[in-house]
Amino acid sequence: MRSKASFRRRQRETTNDTRDLVHDAENTTSMLAIQGLVEKARYASGEVQKGIIQAGLQRHLYPFKPRQKRVDAIWHLVFKKEDLLLAAKISFGKSIIFQTAPLFCRGGIGLIIIPLDRIGQEQCIKIQRLPGARSVFINGGTDKTDALAQEIEMGAYTHLIMGPEIAAGWFRSIARNPSFKRRVSIIAIDELHLVAL
């Protein structure tokens, strides 16, 4: 009998603690604090986890209330850590998902494949404006030095933006590095219809 009461008390405390996580997320002062809450909420309910994502997006990354489907997509990537295939209309805001998902993971890296240099450069600039983000755009004209490769392997960038030819060529040896692979939180292919498979 005593163990059942003890279990129920722990269950109530856990429920209250996880609800507090959303409140904490709504009152955080940085994305670093949000990352800590994401780690604490690993085993919380999906509702609590999505509340943290929504608060992080609205409080730190974008000034508008995020669409629920965006929150769901980021939640899927950050908490479920499963593949996600997203096909959405032009005005959906797909870019927001790959721009922000790595910022919810402490030490997370987003690998973004974009086949058009102009769009890649634009994305790099947009991402660079986000708090806690450090992006690099790598294309055929980039000086691919050992120093750049080492910075990438060490996690100096939160977002790596490149064309498919760089991903399949120069970047390949970096992508095979086990410690680098562990930090990759998202691999996104934008404008997939332009990529020759």
Key traits:
4 strands; four-stranded parallel β-sheet; 197 residues; alpha/beta; 10 helices; 2 domains; 10% strand; Rossmann fold
Number of strands: 4
Going by helix content, strand content and strand pairing, the class is: alpha/beta
* Outline: globular
**Helix and strand element order:** HHHHHEHEHEHHHE
Q: Strand share of the residues?
A: 5-15%
Distance between the termini: 62 Å
Describe the 3D structure:
- It is a single chain.
- By secondary structure, the protein is α/β, with parallel strands linked by helices.
- It has two domains: 2-80; 108-194, Rossmann fold (3-Layer(aba) Sandwich).
- Helices cover 54% and strands 10% of the residues.
- The protein has helices spanning 2-26, 31-40, 46-61, 68-80, 94-100, 117-128, 146-153, 164-168, 172-175, 178-183; strands at residues 109-113, 135-138, 159-162, 184-189.
- Helix 1 (2-26) packs antiparallel against helix 2 (31-40), helix 2 packs antiparallel against helix 3 and helix 4 packs parallel to helix 5.
- The protein starts with a helix and ends in an 8-residue tail after the last strand.
- 34% of the residues are buried.
- The model has no long low-confidence stretch (mean pLDDT 87).
